[in-house]
Design brief:
Blueprint lengths: L8 E9 L16 E15 L4 E16 L7 H14 L7 H17 L7 E15 L4 H13 L1
Parallel strand pairs: 2-4
Antiparallel strand pairs: 1-4, 2-3
Length: 153
């Protein structure tokens, strides 16, 4: 029987300023000052605990673009409310140092750009996320191998 999968752990790679500015904004987006594009790469690993064998089960990728007003970055709590729902929806662990470093990096970049004459600050980031599912299934082969080792002692 498989256990419930954990939340995804993340490895954040540095955020950088994107040179490509999206030209297609709707009317409501005219007040948006930051456009943060995040490329998520997910890896799912199955771990057969008794055999101590890990296999990569699947890969997935997803691109999310968040748009928000620059003045939100003046308040860390409001800014956290912009990022948090996306990460929770994707089951990415938000109670981790990597998440807080990512959050802080975007916050600092926004604060540093306050007062500049930009209409849009395009940012891009890459998040690698992995989850390990532990399986505690008794395999006859594993049990037989373990019994042979124990009988040899």
């Amino acid at each position: 029987m498989a256990s419930t999968p954990y939340e995804y752990d993340i490895i954040h790679q540095p955020t950088f300023e994107d040179n490509i500015i999206s030209q297609s904004h709707d009317i409501a987006s005219q007040f948006i000052n930051i456009e943060l594009t995040i490329d998520f790469f997910f890896i799912s690993v199955h771990h057969a605990c008794l055999a101590d064998i890990s296999t990569i089960n699947n890969h997935a990728s997803l691109r999310e673009t968040l748009r928000f007003k620059l003045d939100i970055t003046e308040n860390q709590h409001l800014f956290d409310q912009v990022l948090f729902p996306t990460f929770r929806r994707l089951r990415i662990k938000t109670a981790s140092l990597a998440y807080h470093n990512f959050d802080h990096e975007i916050f600092v970049r926004g604060m540093c750009s306050i007062g500049t004459n930009r209409e849009v600050l395009p940012l891009r980031s890459v998040i690698q996320a992995s989850v390990v599912e532990h399986f505690h299934v008794h395999s006859d082969g594993v049990l037989m191998g373990r019994a042979l080792v124990e009988s040899a002692l």
